[in-house]
Amino acid sequence: MPRSRLLPLVALAATATLLTAAGCARPDHGTAPAKAAAGNDAAANPAVAAAKQFTAAYTSTTAAWTGPTSSPPVAPGKTIVFLNRWTFSETNSYVVETAKQAAAALGWKFVAVDVSKDFNAGVTQALQLKPDGLISQVTEADADSQALAQIAASGIPHIDFTIGTTDLNTKNPGITHIVDYHYYLQGQLAAAEAVLATGGQARLGLFRASPNSSNQQEIQGIKDYFAQHGGGSVTAEQQIADGLIGSPQLGQAAVAFVQGHPDVNVVWDEFDGIAIGAVPAVRAAGLASKAPQISHEGDAPNLDFIRNGQGQIGDVAVSYGWATWAAFDDLNRIFNKVPLPQDDGVPVRLLTADNLPPAGQRYEGGYDYAGHYRTLWGVK
């Protein structure tokens, strides 16, 4: 499996198993000791001051529009196929529902083709429908070369997101455009939050999936941030087998990681599908205060961990809904032979206990992006 960022949140159902499997005497419900360290006077701690300054622009509860400022007319009568690969994922289901709304606004036909069992065969089936455009998530140039070769040969434009903007991806002829999630910046923000959480003494442990374009960029952002601004370093790293993610064994692995690295005082989970299993298990093992966790994506259950002081202290989030509408805007520009924006303007936010969306809601950007796109397109 090339990418695990969209793995299921069904791990919630396994929480009870995780708590038992963690093998702890009592749960640790707080992260106060780590957060208290961040109270150090920033003037006396240059690393903390730098982290506060770096994160300041990414903590607002609202977002300004930085996407395209004009639009060509809506191209009529188009059919868009979504390569529905991660059918078990709550995030993926949300993207499909959002795509239906964007397509309806444009008056286009939208079809989600299940390609989950055999991606290459599924892409062949999707191309036989002769759509005008394709959208997918987590289609990587290295792992999905055969499918992308099919797409390139078809000449059908393909918008991809939830992948990194590496040369391998951006130069692949089967990927017309990537909606950029700014993974390098996301890594920098995670590192800065680790600095703030530890008072400038972050000893960060990386708990991540197998190498892929997005975590490569995130991890580089983390390491470069520490090198440039100080306040911490990466002191341990563990790659998680894909088969563990979403299983009770992931929680056990997270506890073992923290216990096996007593120097680690904050843990970076690559994405919320990992944190959803790791956070409860570490908390149940009584280790939440020792090693609070930071994750990425902005899923509602993870934001509730932060809200309730349950072992996760930060989440670097993007709006998947915003990215989905941006993908449809990109296709309309392609159909009109209009240049694509270099950056679609999907915002990145560092979410902590101070700036969360309402309880039970995922991060959606704090802006009516759908209304803005409707206005750009001249539709109701």
TrEMBL record:
The keyword Signal applies. Keywords: Signal. The keyword Plastid does not apply. Residues 94-317 form the Periplasmic binding protein domain. CDD domains: PBP1_ABC_sugar_binding-like (cd01536). It comes from the Bacteria. Its main location: other. Residues 1-21 form the signal peptide. GO terms for cellular component: cell envelope. InterPro entries: Peripla_BP_I (IPR028082), SBP_2_dom (IPR025997). PROSITE patterns: PROKAR_LIPOPROTEIN (PS51257). It holds the Pfam family Peripla_BP_4. SUPFAM superfamilies: Periplasmic binding protein-like I. Belongs to the bacterial solute-binding protein 2 family. This is Putative sugar ABC transporter substrate-binding protein. It comes from Kitasatospora setae (strain ATCC 33774 / DSM 43861 / JCM 3304 / KCC A-0304 / NBRC 14216 / KM-6054) (Streptomyces setae).
